[in-house]
Amino acid sequence: MTVTIKAAMDMAIRALQEKEQTEEVTQAIHKLQQLAKRDLVAQWTRESILEALENWREAHDGQAPTVTALAEPGMPGCSIIQKHFGMRASAFLRQQYPQKVTPRHRPNRYGFTTEQDWLDCFREQFEKHCLDEGFSSKTYNVLRDKNTPLWATIAYNVGTSQWGVLMKKAGVSYPNRQQNADPARMHMGVAHHPLYDQLEECLKQAAEHRELLIEGLERTAVRTRYLDAYLELKAQESPYINRVPLETLHKLYHEAPTGSLSDPKPSPEDME
């Protein structure tokens, strides 16, 4: 006759129950009874899994069971849940016990303890600076009062990461703007910042410098063509070579004549 693990467990428990019930024996019986409920010997069904989860929840003051709790004695393991429900244990627990995720208000240097405290601070700063030139999500952190949090910090503590949602939660809006506009996009295309003027000036100067560079390159190219023509005449021992004084050559080198790259190569008469 083959003795199963469950049967052997039951035999051990009964044998201990017949002994003198000392504290050590009592603890051993309790541990064996918990072990008997583990995946190794328990025959789990969907109903028994849900019952075990609810029992755990009741024993922990209504707290939803977690994946860590599934490793405790008497609880269905992750593999059992995946086998019976066809999904990972973590996904099953989120589906079975949906929880509203809310930010944790940890101790902070601003002394805020509730979501309303953060929103009140944002509302105060928004209404104080919203009329300043260029006010938007991009300039809030610069214009805010000293020792007040960044708007992203406020947003995090009220459960969002978006400027528009934060404005909606705080019940604020830009003055003198259309009410049906999307708050998340209100600041786009309307804000003005001194840096924009600096950028436009830099672009203007860049265009001027580009024109000067092109002009200088063209003058240098024309000057080079005159010198090439002179050297060519000299190599050919042309009679015109003696008609080009050194002063003219010096002038060609230091004061390039006007012209463009498309002009033909200068003739000896041009160099005189």
Class by helix and strand content?
mainly alpha
What is the global morphology? elongated
Count all strands and give the number.
0
How would you name the oligomeric state of the polypeptide chains in this document?
Answer: single chain
**What is the count of DSSP helices, taking H or I runs of 4+ residues?**
12
Number of domains: 4
Beta strand %:
under 5%
Order of helices and strands: HHHHHHHHHHHH
Main sheet properties: none
Q: N- to C-terminal separation?
A: 127 Å
The residue ranges in which pLDDT falls below 50 over 5 or more consecutive positions are 178-190
What would the keywords be for this entry?
single chain, 272 residues, mainly alpha, 4 domains, 12 helices, elongated
Question: What does this protein structure show overall?
Answer:
With 272 residues, the chain is mainly alpha-helical. The protein folds into four domains: 1-36; 44-99; 115-185, no CATH class; 195-271, no CATH class. Helix content is 53%, strand content 0%. It has helices at 5-17, 23-35, 46-59, 78-85, 89-96, 115-129, 140-143, 151-157, 163-170, 194-235, 246-254, 268-271. Helix 1 runs antiparallel to helix 2 (23-35), helix 6 runs antiparallel to helix 8 (151-157) and helix 6 (115-129) packs across helix 9 (163-170). The chain is elongated and about 135 Å long. The N and C termini lie far apart (127 Å). The model is unreliable at 178-190 (pLDDT under 50).
